[in-house]
Automatic annotation (TrEMBL):
InterPro entries the UniProt entry points to: Na+/solute_symporter_sf, Put_Na-Bile_cotransptr
GO CC, alphabetical: plasma membrane
Protein name, as recorded: Sodium bile acid symporter family protein
Biased composition (Polar residues): 376-387
Regions crossing the membrane: 27-47, 59-79, 91-113, 125-145, 157-179, 199-221, 233-251, 271-292, 304-326, 338-358
Domain of life, source organism: Eukaryota
Ranges for region Disordered: 368-387
Length: 387
């Protein structure tokens, strides 16, 4: 009875409130990126960049923000870890097969099962879903999220760059293979133009200027001034700067989607369906890549796989869809691109939440390693071995 009265006192209630709001504040600080994601999408939905400034916006965001992320990675990523990541060809093959073949096969199966009622689903959205499964993994979000989850960011850097190098060659072939049966939802598509020279030039130029060059500069600075760069990296909070750059990239994608009236061009129940099915196939991709990675890869490597495989980049999917089907109206192009844009927002939101559990997962392994090192007999064994 006394304990019950104590619990009902104003002081105990205030203490519980302080604890609750303290936990809420810590969660908000930990997930500030997710909150920022909601803010930039809200801003993009209300105010869009004028059409006359779209090209400048796209160039600045595409090159500058991505370059900031990879420069920060080059300044903080150990060179030996990067070299080791490049040499692991078995892991590269394992991840790229899943990024292109597994993801596209799963999503084609889902589309085939769902495309039963032409009066419910818009054909452009279903083609957009297939496109989403065929495009390569993201670059910027993979790096930011892998670091946030304490995964192997060196492996993520290599896989993201490799996937986007292969994407212009593999994605069109996969898309053509899946739309070849001529289902009802592909009737509006024109013949593929097949002229990919411009997309190759654009992609490789972007990879060189915004990915490889900043990465090399960051690695050189780290090699020449290791202590000074390490100190500056902490002072300038380069990881946070990379996260802010990613938010700007996401804002640019949604600004373009809202500016083209993409979301208002389709029925509301179709948008709800796309959101639901996007969450479903993200979880399927995640479950498959985790189940196939955990038996033979370390936890840090598994986390890198979990961020590379389910991630998809509209930065390549959008221009590829425009290039492959020349002659489509802007409304039809917008419908194809909607699933990619929606999936980007959902994928980054879910990835940010997963980082909480991945950090705890890695921490358990690190704690076990420390406990083994601190075992009473361990020091004597070590001294015997050294002797």
């Amino acid at each position: 009875m006394a304990s019950l009265e104590e619990d009902l006192t104003p002081g105990s209630r205030q203490s519980r409130c302080r604890k609750f709001f303290g936990k809420l504040g810590r969660l908000a600080l930990d997930q500030w990126f997710l909150l920022g994601l909601g803010v930039v999408i809200l801003i993009a939905s209300q105010v869009q960049v004028p059409s006359s400034q779209l090209h400048i916006k796209q160039v600045v965001v595409t090159y500058l923000c991505v370059a900031i992320i990879f420069f920060a990675t080059g300044c903080t990523l150990p060179t030996q870890a990067l070299i080791k990541g490049i040499s692991r060809w078995q892991v590269h093959l394992f991840i790229q097969i899943q990024c292109f073949l597994m993801t596209s096969a799963v999503i084609f199966g889902i589309v085939s099962a769902c495309a039963t009622n032409p009066h419910f689903m818009d054909g452009g959205l279903l083609v957009g879903l297939i496109f989403t499964g065929c495009v390569p993994t993201a670059i910027s979000s993979n790096i930011v999220m892998t670091r946030k989850a304490h995964g192997n960011d060196a492996l993520t850097v290599v896989q993201s760059a490799l996937g986007n190098f292969l994407g212009p060659f593999i994605t069109p072939l996969l898309v053509q293979m899946y739309i070849a049966p001529h289902a009802w939802y592909t009737d509006f598509l024109p013949e593929s133009s097949g002229n990919y020279g411009e997309i190759y030039r654009r992609v490789f130029k972007q990879l060189g200027i915004s990915v490889f060059m900043p990465m090399v500069v960051g690695q050189c600075l780290q090699y020449c001034f290791p202590k000074r760069i390490r100190k500056r990296s902490i002072q300038w909070m380069l990881s946070k700067l990379g996260s802010l750059s990613l938010l700007v990239i996401i804002w640019q994608t949604f600004d373009q989607a809202f500016g083209s009236n993409a979301f208002s061009s389709v029925k509301g129940n179709n948008i709800v369906f796309i959101v639901f099915i996007s969450i479903v196939y993200f979880l399927i991709w995640l479950a498959i890549c985790l189940a196939t990675s955990m038996p033979w890869l370390s936890k840090r490597d598994t986390i890198a796989v979990a961020y590379c495989v389910p991630a998809k980049t509209p930065a390549m999917g959008v221009p590829l869809s425009n290039l492959m089907f020349v002659g489509l109206s802007s409304l039809q192009q917008a419908k194809i691109q909607i699933p990619m844009v929606i999936f980007q927002g959902l994928q980054i939101s879910l990835s940010s939440l997963l980082a909480i559990y991945f950090r705890k997962w890695v921490a358990v392994e690190e704690k076990e390693d420390l406990d083994k090192q601190d075992e009473p007999g361990q020091s004597s064994v070590d001294s015997t071995v050294k002797a």
